[in-house]
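Fold this sequence, please.
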Amino acid sequence: MMNTSHMTFTQLLKNIKFVGLIIATLLSCTQNTKQYVKKTSIIEGKDKIIQLDTESSFELLSLQLKEKENILLTLDAIKNNINIFEWNNGELIEKIPLNIDEKNIIYNPTRFFYHNRDSIFVVDFGENIKLINKKGEIIDEFLIGEIKSKNNEYSGIFGYTQIGNNKNFLFKQNKIFYPTEHLSSEYKRLGIYNINSETLNEIIEPPYSIQNLFENDFVDFWYDLDESTNSLYLSFPLTNSIYKYNLNKNSMEGLHTPILNHQFENHYKPIYNDIRYSNLEPNRISNILNKINSLSRYTSIILTENFIVRLFIHQSNQTEAKARNFTIYIFSKNGELLGEKYFQNPTLDNDILLVSASEDFIFSKRDTLFIPYIKSKPDENKITFKSFTISRNTNN
């Protein structure tokens, strides 16, 4: 009887330890994922509507908000004009024409940066960067941005990502900031060209191993400039951390957020190594690309007045999905996670939020985000944005 009781008690202790281990493991996993106090809320507000004239298209290549001047500028994908809208009423007030004559040709404009009315930088894909005035006259050009790749087959060709507003193209302190188009892992990702000294400096490497990665996962990154500290906040597609690059010190630090723990193992496959140079059938390459494009990854990073906004695109079960579900994460400028909001895309009203795994046209005004979307019944005479205001919770 004593032996039976002893065995029962021993087994009971083992069971208690086992249950305790399970509980500790579950608590640990929970703490590593979602255990934090949400200090912000993301509230949807009124739609922002931009009215088009009869000649303009709602298809955009690039856009820019000039908050101090209270104007929104867009690059029309069809007409190749830069349209200027008054922000408050959304009405078109001016057009900057492109390709006004044979001396002022911009073959393939893909994005722009409006510095002032007589200094507008336009990326001419496959050519260079051109500087125009409000009349569309080319007043200067900059031969920067040459593509470099493994076998140097693109030598001498200038190229930039064709679309993607939040792969920022900036002009600050006489310097052009642009994402490089180097397709080889040995080159750095951000070009900074000084127009006064005509010198080029390339900076920033991915903060993770790039072996067995498809090129987009180490070429792509998103950034926004914090002028108050002369620093870039960076979002790389396959890391949960935000990075801050100090332009004065030429140094980068990770703003780690252990609460976030998205996994990216599926991005690492030997078959992804430079499939351009692999002897694969076209259908096989297409299937590989569709698989890669359906995977989850981080994309845009956007500074608001008081916060950092970062997007995470969730994996899609459809390899050619036109809309992807996504999460918006809100951080402090020190990298503390303050809140998040998950978005179903398309929405319950069947509206498509224009957020994808590679590009988007999201921008901020103060602490409000504006996300362009297409209604279930599109109106081609309007560009529409959903607005989402970020605010601190009053009980924190």
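The first strand starts at residue 40 and ends at 44. Residues 1-7, 16-33 have pLDDT under 50 and may be disordered.
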